Amino acid sequence: MSNQASPAAHAGVPSLMAIVYLALAAGVSAMGMRVNDALLPQLSQLFGVPLSATAQVVSLYALAYGATQVLWGPVGDRFGKYRVVGIAVIGCALASAACALAEDFTQLRAMRVLAGALAAAIIPLAMAWIGDVVPYERRQPVLARFLIGQITGLAAGVWLGGVAADHFSWRMPYYTLTVLYGLAGVQLWLGARRLPRAPAPAAAPLAGMAAGFGQVLRQGWARRLLATVFLEGAFLFGPLAFVAAHLHTRLGVSLTVAGSLLMMYGAGGFVYALAARRLVAGLGEVGLARAGAVCLCLGLGTIAVAPMWLFGLLGSLLSGLGFYMMHNTLQVNATQMAPQARGAAVSIFAASFFLGQAAGVSLTGWLATRFGSGPAIAAGGVALLGVGLAFGQMLARRKAAG
Predict the structure, then answer these.
(1) Looking at residue 340, what is its pLDDT?
(2) Which of 17, 66, 220, 242 sits at 20 to 30 Å (Cα–Cα) from 363?
(3) CA separation for the pair 339, 71 (Å, rounded)
(4) Contact 308, 317 (CB under 8 A)
(5) 56, 64, 180, 188: which is closest to 115 by C-alpha?
(6) CATH number of residue 337's parent domain
(7) CA 174 to CA 62: how far, in whole Å?
(8) pLDDT at res. 175
């Protein structure tokens, strides 16, 4: 339960089950991120608040998730990333139970903030732990396989919210999250006991935090990566929060069907995860970033103008494939921003990503209110095309410079 890897890990072969347990936790965490997307129309009617205000259960969750990254990264560096992930998962189980028991929208919103702050430890510290134990040349395929858990959770979260909105209470998804977090937490606890122990770093926590963040932020390349992932989060996950409601309104399908169509976003991620090794070899990082940007633009654009459900399915598939092509390339570069303070580096990266999401949900809600959900979603696709192509150009210049 430490930052030190076993001999097998140093050889590039960390325990398969250790990765599986982290992927399970990441999947439940991702489910919690997106479970409210299809619930927004029901929550709006039930609590009597506008849809844009109801979206605060998404935006404030993302805000808390991003803001607390600056704490979790150094904590993971100090006390052991795998151990901290396990503790955070148990905390998320309790926070999800509190969400299920909320008596009004104010309480639900507050518990979502708490859940976001705790869930913030899971995926970034899991990524950082993988960065510690897997050599750089093998890291992208391993991260891609780890992301299968996150991909599954994202898709299942939207679907679960849609089913609950049509057939059950809005509380049902939170009870489900409570159980799943509890199961994942037990598995992490048992798995962590098999990891070798090592003494904690000698540096004081506050000193380590300041040094780690300073080491990252002094680098121009790191600052450019952080700006890129902020914009990616804003222009993708802002529109995604409104896709289920958009398809429900535009096509007249149930929220269950709308959530099911959005599950194809996860299928696009699976396509990437399974083909990651070949895609990396064939396209390289620059090609992945550019192709991902094009897929994202086409995907969101197709969803925005979808005349029938089949277009929603295709748009979701393209969006998922494009996101993981571009975002996994960003993630791999993030794990190498500051190898001596990888926990802090990945945490700042995740903070930028989720702060971008929080800003994006608010921006997209405003655009949807003024111009309609279709134009708001399409605008995100166009913006992502520019962000991805600019990122690809930055990578090309960096590689050309050696």
Answers:
(1) 66
(2) 220
(3) 18
(4) no
(5) 64
(6) 1.20.1250.20
(7) 17
(8) 92
CB 258 within 8 A of CB 162: yes
- Total residues found in the chain within this entry: 402
**Domain count along the chain:** 1
User: Which residues are CB-neighbours of 209 under 8 A, at least 6 positions away?
Assistant: 70, 74, 344
Residue-number span of the structural domain to which 135 is assigned: 11-400
Q: What pLDDT, on the 0 to 100 scale, is given for residue 359?
A: 86
Cβ atoms of 259 and 161 closer than 8 Å: yes
Please list, in sequence order, all residues whose beta carbon lies within 8 angstroms of the beta carbon of residue 54, skipping any fewer than 6 positions away. Answer: 40, 43, 44, 47, 105
Considering the domain boundaries, does residue 80 fall inside one? yes
Q: What is the dihedral of CA 56, 227, 346, 13, to 10 degrees?
A: 120
Q: Is-contact 332 349, C-beta < 8 A?
A: no
Q: Which amino acid is at 336?
A: Q
Q: Which helix (H) or strand (E) holds 367?
A: helix 342-371
Residue 250 lies in a domain: yes
CA 6 – CA 14 distance, rounded (Å): 8
Contact 295, 322 (CB under 8 A): yes
pLDDT of 369 reads: 84
Residue 200 lies in a domain: yes
Residue 4 is assigned to a structural domain of this protein: no
Helix (H), strand (E) counts: the chain: 18, 0
pLDDT in tens, 209-232: 666 677 777 778 888 889 999 999
**Residue 15's pLDDT is what?**
63
Alpha carbons 334 and 228: distance in angstroms, whole number:
11
**pLDDT number for residue 115:** 93
Where the chain has pLDDT below 70, the residues are 1-16, 136-137, 139-141, 144, 191-212, 338-344, 402
**With contact defined as beta carbons under 8 Å apart, do 365 and 264 qualify?**
no
At residue 11, the pLDDT reads 41
Q: Which long-range contacts (CB under 8 A, 24 or more apart) does 40-45 make?
A: 40/241, 40/242, 40/244, 40/245, 41/165, 41/245, 41/248, 41/255, 42/165, 42/170, 42/255, 43/105, 43/108, 43/170
Residue 197's CB is within 10 A of a number of other CB atoms, namely 12
**Angle, vertex CA 265, rays to CA 21 and CA 360, nearest 5:** 95
Residues 297, 300, 304: CA angle, nearest 5 degrees:
130
User: φ, ψ for residue 5 (rounded to 5)?
Assistant: -95, 155
